[in-house]
Amino acid sequence: MKNYPGILIAAPQSGSGKTLITISLLRAYSSLGLKIGAFKCGPDYIDPMFHRKVLGLPSRNLDLFFVDREKLREIYRDKNNNDLSIVEGVMGLYDGSDIKSYVSSGYDIAAATGLPIILVINAKGMGRSVISLIKGFKIDDDKNQIKGVILNRITKSFYERLKPLIEEETGLTCLGFFPEDKELNISSRHLGLMQPEEIKNLNILIDKAALIAKESIDLDKIREIADSYCKLLLKESDLKEADHLEDKNINRKRIAVARDEAFSFYYEENLDILRRYFNLTFFSPIRDERLPEDISGIIIGGGYPEEYAKELSSNKSMKESIFKALKRGMPVIAECGGFMYLSKTLTTKEENSYEMVGYVDSNIRFMGKLVRFGYCEIEDKATGIKIRGHEFHYFDSDNNGDGCIIRKKTVDKSWHGVHRNDNQWIGYPHLYLPSSEEFINWFVFQVMNYSDKN
């Protein structure tokens, strides 16, 4: 048994203020000189960007659809020598991959790791009903994970009146409040929150939020809760093989990873795995003239290519560089936005059409609604290799490919997708590499055996 102090910030529903409270606490504790770690429940990309902006450190995802409980605990434990880890929940506390149960929910993750839950309640426009709401969430807390509450968007005077009532009637500790402040509202767009780089004076706003947290939230009590409950019964994971691969550094090939404003959706766990085998070099399809030199593979993740379609289309030398590399058979994984970029055309919601790389015989158009949203399992038709991921996009293609069978198990649906050949994977699903050793091995083999003859 080892103690990995941490808390999970949860809420009754999305929009309650989890992200604001999380980044406020991250900055507040960091400013006190503590070593802080950050995690995000579920398949979200954008919240971890805010965590990274606050700490200057990677934020990792915890997701029980993607991996089993032991692997999830390993991800939480790996590289974790923090004084405190703060895990941001997903949606409502009990919302998981299946409406019939809380499987894969924030609550399920808390139960798997032993993390105590701090419930954030948006108390604006509520009075005594706050107590009834908390009691309702306590009813389903059969593992006694909820240890405290923070009231959001409430005044100090009202909090002081509610606090003793909540503690007396629910048995939970009131850990503080956060007053409403419109300046601290984080804007959103169709895929979720704005990215950190798009918000003016974000660091100033985060500093302000941290000051508020120091004044109105009991930081010492939260640390006490984190220290008391999060003791993980874990086997020491056998990472010797991965460490050996990293340390050996023999014949390590380079792969190019697209990363800029248009392509920013990457799981840190995916990058961790790729770094075990390869040297990663990052490039910008918006600004760089061509692919990096001496590479043996390409990764193009998701993001917002539709927001930068004009800039991507105008960079003809980069498009040509990528097209030629892929025509030579260079291995590639292109997910969602990466697939859109490798297609022939991208038509935005304003009906402006732009030429993309043109490697895939596909035309992309805005659909005005979420398309094939949710968790899925992807099976390669040729190899039988399975990997888990999710889809989350408002655009669709007139040719999604047919190299894989994609299954949404919770509603017993399946469809065909992904453009596949021996060493290239291009499609809408976002992949979670830790969910499939077979897929990792396939891609590593392709890169290691690729020889650029030109």
Question: What does this molecule look like?
Answer:
- The protein is α/β, with parallel strands linked by helices and 454 residues long.
- The chain is built from 14 helices and 26 strands.
- The strands form six sheets. A seven-stranded parallel beta sheet has the order 4-3-5-2-6-7-8, sandwiched between helices. Strands 18, 19, 20, 21, 22, 23 and 26 form a seven-stranded mixed beta sheet that branches.
- β7, α6 (156-170) and β8 (173-178) form a beta-alpha-beta unit.
- It is elongated and about 70 Å long.
- The N and C termini lie far apart (55 Å).
- The relative contact order is 0.11.
- Mean pLDDT is 91; it is low at 233-250.
Which terms would index this structure?
seven-stranded parallel beta sheet; 14 helices; seven-stranded mixed beta sheet; alpha/beta
The order of strands across the largest sheet is 4-3-5-2-6-7-8
Please tally the β strands and state the result: 26
Outline: elongated
Helix content: 25-40%
Query: What is the overall number of helices?
Result: 14
Largest sheet: 7 strands, parallel
Average pLDDT score: 91
- Rg over alpha carbons: 23 Å
* Low-confidence residue ranges: 233-250
What distance separates the N and C termini?
A: 55 Å
Beta-strand fraction estimate: 25-35%
Structural class: alpha/beta
